[in-house]
Amino acid sequence: MTESFDLLVIGAGPAGGEAALSAASAGLNVALIDEGPAAGGQVWRAPRTAKAKRSRAQDPDRERGDDLRARLAASSIKIFYATQVWDARPGFRVSCVSDAGAKELNAPCLVLATGAIERVLPFEGWTTPGVFGLAAATAVMKAEKALFGQDIVIAGQGPLLIAVAAKACELGLRPRAIIDRASRSDWLRAAVGFAGVPSMLITGARWMSQLALAGIPYHRGSEVIRANGDNALQSIVMSNLDSGATEEIEADTLYVGNGLTPADELHRLLGAAQTADGLRGGYRTIRDDRCRSSVPNLYVAGDGAGVYGALPSAIQGQIAGLSAARDHGALTEAQFSARVKEPRRKLRRLEKFGDASCRLMQFPQDVTTHVSAETIICRCEDVTHADIHAAIDDGAQDLNQLKHFTRLGMGPCQGRMCGLTAAAILNHRNPGPKTDTRLTPRAPVRPIEMNQLIGDFDYDDIPVPKPAPL
Amino acid sequence: MSERLEIRLTVNGAPLACAVGQTVASALLANSSYLLRLSPNGQTPRGAFCMMGACQECAIQIDGGIRRACQTEVRDGMRVELRGAADDRG
Ligand SMILES: Cc1cc2nc3c(=O)[nH]c(=O)nc-3n(C[C@H](O)[C@H](O)[C@H](O)COP(=O)(O)OP(=O)(O)OC[C@H]3O[C@@H](n4cnc5c(N)ncnc54)[C@H](O)[C@@H]3O)c2cc1C
Ligand code: FES
What we know:
The structure holds 2 protein chains of 2 kinds. By secondary structure, chain A is an alpha/beta fold. In chain A, 36% of the residues lie in helices and 21% in strands. Chain A has a 5-stranded parallel sheet with strand order 4-3-2-8-21, with helices on one face. In chain A, strands 10-17-11-12-13 form a 5-stranded parallel sheet. In chain A, strands 1-7-6-5 form a 4-stranded mixed sheet. In chain A, helix 1 (14-25) packs parallel to helix 3 and helix 1 (14-25) packs parallel to helix 9 (310-328). The longest helix of chain A is centred in the C-terminal third of the chain and has 28 residues, at 333-360. Chain B has a single domain, classed as 2Fe-2S iron-sulphur cluster binding domain, sarcosine oxidase, alpha subunit, N-terminal domain (Ubiquitin-like (UB roll)). Chain B has one helix at residues 24-30, and strands at 7-11, 14-18, 37-38, 45-46, 59-62, 65-68, 79-81. A 5-stranded mixed sheet of chain B has the order 2-1-7-5-6, covered by helices on one side. A two-stranded antiparallel sheet of chain B has the order 3-4. The chains are: A alpha/beta, B mainly beta. The A-B interface holds A 35-37, 42, 47-53, 117-118, 127-133, 135-136, 139-140, 143-144, 146, 148, 230-233, 263, 376, 379-382, 411-413, 416-417, 447, 449, 451-452 and B 1-4, 19-23, 26, 29-30, 34-36, 39-42, 44-57, 59, 65-66, 71, 73, 85. The complex binds flavin-adenine dinucleotide and FE2/S2 (inorganic) cluster. FE2/S2 (inorganic) cluster binds at residues 48-51, 53-58, 68, 70 of chain B.
């Protein structure tokens, strides 16, 4: 099945939702695609269970999400939920799959608003069931107003760490420990950047004081170095980054994360130019002040192009939608300029906050020097730290070679979980000019099964060509 | 946790009650069922990890196909098997 539109938007988070709305308000015929069951993305995720829907707790993210969902429902936008995009080709032709089968959507303009994924620094035993990303905790708390585990440890770095810990306390849980890679002075340095956005500073300070009041042990400048357990987590070992002193803590559930990185497979697949992001680590997609990428009629907005956080993402989305409407001819240059003026002003102020948060999630380049040889780096293919060093010894110089030598990044996650870590190991081993440490993206960007593409069919459905006349 | 458990699915043939709107992964986790499958190469135990559709650690047999448990909403009568794509143990 093929359908055509003026504009396709991939991702219905703050960026994609606002992009679709602003383009539709300018008169474009827009389709919006998201693999989730509702709009909102990561941060404005919709509640899913009755308990979460009933929750009256004051929650600005829920309110913003409800508002976005209401505006989308009242709009003319054609929305495809529970639909995964697995390929995008120039022109643009976007291939999707849902429970109903395969779909092709076409449009001359495309906005990519695919959001971020979480980085987790590997440590011994991080594949043990019971070890989760920090993002997992926020996703479950937003959708279900619940969090799994009895003896919970929350660890990692960055704003998400404090947010998860504070929200867990609000649910009445008492984490056994919070383990923060950042030191007190890291936080103070970041606070200077947060000062541009007082509401954020206040929220952060309130969370910190809630944790202090609850008396949860807070270990600064420390990290988890081992998870013990076989079929289920039993304990974790924490190490102080300065002294190296270790402590074992019993836990059945660990939530750990080290910041966010763009989910940019589609950006790279379509050839949008990128640049190394010194502050955030990894790469971001180059865009001009109209959110246009280097590929004509391809627009990028939100964390998928570079991680700045929820509010900047929403505004970038607005700008991208208006920009597409302008290039499509639905707005004159004067109308466009008038409409982007206010969003651009807000964006300049908010992006400072994004930079400050990123300082707290800076990805250390020597992250794996202390990681044991047996530690799994690529979870899908069970490629260990030792395997990677062996491949480098044998001559692997970039990620693609490492992939061919070890199968790293070849499994179903396609290097999402291991790419940055493997790149850090490569760069650490090969000092000097940095090589391009990205995997070449390939479709499908999501694993799909043949029967999903083909759908249910009867033999009668198979077209049989008329026999040629003899 | 006064959630009404209105949906019934089976996990390796055994019944599991869960709430409307839960994902298969969260229904299993709420029931302390953390182990989902073994990794295909190293045969090491794995459970859900990212809960946002990215890592594929939760890809198990659901109604006869491999689906991400963290992205699949529970449905009455759903059949869940705790094994992955390359996992042929019974
Ligand atoms: C788990 C998590 C929690 C976060 N919590 C906060 C928070 O509390 N506060 C804050 O300021 N920031 C938070 N962030 C940062 C947050 O991601 C951004 O600030 C904000 O959500 C970015 O908006 P976005 O629209 O760019 O992306 P997202 O909100 O991530 O939306 C992207 C959407 O694209 C969809 N998508 C991606 N790829 C595909 C595909 N191939 N096919 C179909 N659909 C696809 C996804 O399903 C998703 O809904 C969080 C990030 C994560 C990952
Ligand atoms: S837990 Fe990562 S994809 Fe489901």
